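Human: I wish I could look at a protein chain and see how it folds. This is the protein in question:
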Amino acid sequence: MKHCYECHSSASGKSKGGLKVDSLEALLRGGDTGPAIAGRSLDKSLLYEAISYDGDYQMPPKGKLPSEVIADFRNWILAGAPDPRVTKINEDVQTEIDIEKGREFWAYRLPVHHDPPEHKNTDWPRTSIDQFVLAKWNEKGLTPVDDAPAQALVRRLYFVIIGLPPTAEESQRWTARMDSSTSDAARQQIVFELVDHLLDLPQFGERWGRHWMDVARFAESTGGDQNNVFQHAWRYRDWVIDAFNSDKPYDQFVREQLAGDLLPIADDQEWADNLIATGFLAIGVKLVGEEDQQKYFADLVDEQIDTTTRAFLGTSVACARCHDHKFDPIPQTDYYAMAGIFRATETHYGLLKAQARQATTLIDLTGMGPKSGQPELSKQEYAELVQARDDAKKTLDDAMRKIRSGENVFRGLLRKYRSDRDETEAALQAVLTSGQARVFAMGTQDREFPLPTRLLVRGELDKPAQEVPRGLLRVLSPPGKHTLTTWTKDAAVRHEKTDDGLGASSYFSDSGRLELAQWIASERNPLTARVMVNRIWHWMFGRGLVRTVDEFGVSGDPPTHPELLDYLANQFVEDGWSTKKLIRQIALSRTWQLSSKHDDKNFDVDPDNQFLWQMNRRRLEAEAVRDAMLVVSGNLDSQRPLGTLLRDVGEGNVGQNVFEPVIRAIESNHRSVYLPRVRGVLPEMLELFDAPDASLVTGSRETTSSPLQSLYLMNNPFVQLQAKGFADRVQQFPPSERIKQAYLIAFGRHPTTQQQQLAVEFMRNVSESRLTTEEKLIAYCQTLLCTSEFNTID
């Protein structure tokens, strides 16, 4: 290998073509064109092809190796490619963490079954949730405030469940029904009907899918050093929305995102959907300009571990990359046990090789039916495809000329250029024969040859220690059942399903990723149900039973109502992991239907409202504010757009050929969940009103208040346009009715006497200003859009 080290080694500081050859792992991982060697396969070993001068690559470029050396390489590869070099391996790293003691922490114990507390006051509680909450009030000396008024409750239900305000007609109809009910039971039946109506609307998935996308750090670009656009991330976005609308059981929701490509399927469409679900692992931040392939791969795996464990387990396992976890019972070996699973996984996210050193292929879903969302090509799109084919061919021809002239640096790009030409040619043929282009998606698949994994001292690539078998977190696994080393395909087929928490089944994955998904989605995992129940509670109340929704470890907050959390977690599983059932249960509780009225005595005891004696008043998220403006203006396009709004921008680096102003200027009347989500380049309104940038798991958004928000509401053309649409709707009514109708459209209620008088006075003084009556009405409507009531869930 000495002939290769000059250009492909850590010692030389070079990794041409992204390839290093100074470790077996580097050879197995390969460079820009894939793995350099494949044990026992000469055909799949590009290194052998290159040194044989039998293909596109000819290495070393200065002259062919002696035939006996080539023969040695041949025999070595056929023998399985064992690494003959003496590599300094550090002493085994030991841990001082007491796993058994760690299992005593509340979050690492299985949820306990609790019966709802009994109370002498049987009139107040409506549900089991109320019984648990009432017990805490009795303990703390708290009393509940009044129930929310019907109009406020209707508005609350609409925003929380579908993220949109009720129309004036809807608000009046449901409010009137509740106010005219003759008993508490009758009112509850009306609330039940409204909740079910909202849960059945397609807008539910858009609202709650957006919540999950915060957790899944969904974005349409890599972020990081070059910030390349993901043209196919939108398929995962749509999959999430559809999953919530269909009330996909949460345990299946977990499995599909982590190992959908490995699950049994009924047909091709299910296969395509499952592959799209694994986009969860592919859409994270990536430093695609990184030259060191091994460092890039290690960082990619680390990001996948961090997202997986924070999203599904509320646990920061990535803290153990360099040393044992400082707070939680997670030794460094557990981190590398999980890393082995993701190191055995290929992540496909695309990008252009000419613009991103760490580009990959995409997964071809062609022929998976209309649900894939691929439209027939227009004449313009067909012309663009022809252009792409011709460009690829020209680039290939240029590269070949330079190679023939001795410019060997271009050899490493040759295979990619040929691939571009072949793919576009195949796409053209598909158009000519079936009217559809090829359909691609981001996602994951198992590697053909899983890579060995060694613990890295202080996380440094050049300080390997003991080899670590693939496995799971010990603190969350039954004793002695945290590794996958004893599993083989034959053994897995014979293995009967048990309650050991591993979710054993009659199918098996080479990577262990399926077993990881089964373990996380198991009812025997102490964290999974608790974490999701807490997320749902947080999205319903604006605050979780565990405040730190992404951190259930020692450094997180303990639950304010531990018995209630366990009760709901157990019921969540018993109800088939149904998100909609849990939302319905919470919405029907009297606790959730309380008003946000202040109470001095309760405030003195519990100023932070930890124990839920009132409903938390909270500001709407950025997307809900924008969507509400589109609703009241009559401009909302409720249809799902096809694909991404970045489609016309094209692929490439955001800072170079996809300019930020171009992305920020993209506007649409579709719901905000469909707006471009480029890391670092969010639409202005979303950025100002605290939408996350999707670099990390974000289960709880920040809520800030700044002068820039007010200036935006007063001066931005988008807000002014919605104010005009709002005014146009109001102007259709007689002048005497306009103020009342404006309040009904914006807030679902009539104005107070004072508000009516102020509005009439404002409109009457037209002659004292330079504004016309129409302009004054637009200004007044914009004022309503800027109020805290419009931007708040009460």
